[in-house]
Design goal:
Layout lengths: L3 E2 L4 E2 L4 E2 L4 E2 L4 E4 L18 E2 L4 E2 L4 E3 L3 E2 L4 E2 L4 E2 L4 E2 L4 E2 L4 E2 L4 E2 L4 E2 L4 E2 L4 E2 L4 E2 L4 E2 L11 H4 L4 E2 L4 E2 L4 E2 L4 E2 L4 E2 L4 E2 L7 E4 L4 E5 L9
Parallel strand pairs: 1-4, 2-5, 3-6, 4-7, 5-8, 6-9, 7-10, 8-11, 9-12, 10-13, 11-14, 12-15, 13-16, 14-17, 15-18, 16-19, 18-21, 19-22, 20-23, 21-24, 22-25, 23-26, 25-27
Antiparallel strand pairs: 27-28
Length: about 220
Amino acid sequence: MSCEIATSAVVYPGTVLGEGCKILDYAVIGKQPTLGPRSTATRDELPPLELGAGTIVSTGAIVFAGSTIGDRAIIGDQACVRERCTIGDDVVIGRGALVENDTTVGSLTKIQADAYVTAYTTVEGGVFIAPRVITTNDNFMGRTEKRHALRKGPTIRRGARVGAGAVLCPAVEIGEEAFVGAGAVVVGDVPPRVVVVGNPARVLREVPEEELSAD
């Protein structure tokens, strides 16, 4: 098997590397999480990280144990993918982006620089998430015990696009091929194939036919 692993990279025991993977300078892969005493996350030992063929983990990036990364994915410089994530084929996670635990990202999705994808989020295939998008999963912001059962990140359906600096509130659903304008604050579900803008986000118009994906 042919892989490229920088001498300064850290590869934890058991990590599975597909053919042609590249692990660049100071990247850390297969790390078990370190949890604080008040963390509500599960503390079970996680299975090894699996990286698909041709995947690149760039300089200073961290990918945790318990996750599976598909073929030909790119984890950008200083990006981070937490535990129990499933990342599809041909996904790009940009510089400094963070994908939190228990998140699914479908194939051909692009998550741009400094975006924050919160825990328990579902991102389907062909989605575009612009720089510094923020997603959230807790309407109670850490208060009250009932929040545990209600904690849920957004669901972003196939082919949707989320503009720079937009904020997606907990559990909202962004419909297929929907377009969320830059800086929008989405507090409720967005129907398929519409453009929403503003704070709170409101429907502006339908997505033009020529902007819909071919599939």
